[in-house]
# Entry
Amino acid sequence: MKFASNDSSKPRRARHSEAVILFCIANQTFAIAADAVQEIRSTDSLGGAAIEIEQAEVPKVRHLVERARRTYYVVSGCAHFGLRVTRPTLVLILRQIRAAVLVDSIERMADVTTIHPLPRAFEGEERKWYRGLTYLEDRVIPVIHPGGFLTVEEFARLDQAAAASNAAQQMVGAEQG
Amino acid sequence: MTAAEQTGKQSYVLLHVGNRRFALRSELVEELAPPVRLHHFPNTTALVAGVIVRRGRIVPVYDVAPVLCGRESSIHRFYLVARRSFGTDSEASAIPVNGECELASAELLPTAVGEPGYFTGSLEVGDEKIQVLNLEALVRSRAGSNDSSNSAGFRR
# Structure
């Protein structure tokens, strides 16, 4: 049995909200869509699995990690955003792209209903970094564009460096064996 | 046609940046906003200091004092919100000012030789010669010094 809604004649305004993770790098808060993050790990737990990239092809990437047969490049959040260098404690492993991001801390999760476009006054790298801005509890917080951490060209250079590093390691292993 | 237009005069908002007065065409000016919170986040765009929130809109703030006065101004108390053109469209943009804004009608005098391109002319108000700002040229004046490298990314 169904009861007719009293206000069925009124169009119900469905307010779409999006779950975001608020995280901090050098005291700066950022938001990223929760469904863009596959996993959050502590840097300590990942330490053993991280492989150092010998060639500094992309200065903001110093390590890679293998997760589920995929290579993720670990991007320093400080270096990416030009913030002062801090000691990151967490790694956000992203879902759609082969990148992970070093961050200082997770603030909390939140639901945002509006993401304002980045004003056109912003003409620099930030146009790639941010999907837009959200206004949350009297704060304007940039919402991260996950694809902005590494360009296609940077991925290609990193893949080359990783392959070269892997080949060198295999050669050393063969010589020792 | 207004009385000012009939006499060849136009209307300008006179504003204080640092310890100097400048003028902006009044039709570009939306409002003088109170000293609301300036929100910072990393960016690499020259002169953009952050954003303020006004009437539900996010308005970028241009710190033009280093261009106009040669140094940062620490005494601004208000934001002058004006329209900046982007092709056929425009966007609200804020400039930190000292708060002492007034409306004046005056005739635009041509720019003197050698004056920066972000002045479109000058006004004579009383004994004072006040330069008229071209907002678009002003905020673009440091565009060439944009540092896309991340080390210079965050300005406070």
Summary: The longest helix of chain A spans residues 152-176. Residues 18-172 of chain A form a domain with the OB fold (Dihydrolipoamide Acetyltransferase, E2P) fold (CATH 2.40.50.180). Residues 72 and 98 of chain A are 4 Å apart (CA to CA).
